Amino acid sequence: MARRKRTSQVLEKATRRAAGINSIDPNLDVGNGLTLPAFSTLIEMMRTKENAYNSALSNLDKLYREMLEIEDQLADMAEHILMGVGTRYGKSSIEYGMAGGVPKNQRRKGLRGESPIPSVEQPSIVASVNGNGNGKTVAPTN
Description:
By secondary structure, the protein is mainly alpha-helical. It has helices at 9-24, 36-89, 94-98, and strands at residues 124-129, 136-141. Helix content is 53%, strand content 8%. A two-stranded antiparallel ribbon has the order 1-2. Strand 1 and strand 2 form a beta hairpin. Helix 1 packs antiparallel against helix 2.
């Protein structure tokens, strides 16, 4: 999915304002360096930076898509190489395990709905009430 390009509301507002000020006086100077030409220069600098930023996002999106494509090719090739090792040496061989596969004779088959690794039960803790202190003691149950 492509990244959203940036649009500056401040830039749009400044552009509209500059157009309005231009209709008053193209060389307006209100003092302290606040002139329409300086304002227009700053607007153009912002527009240039925003365009450069959006172009960089587009390039980044392109690079990301290329990377994903190569990653898919790499995954396919890794799978094919493992299948080739399995074909040449057998799926129960040491070489197959060295290439990253699980040798057929070392695979575990679990029953449906059951994990291949048995879980260890943890003892539960129950609070019981007695007549001393705060009325609670902790007793492990099994």
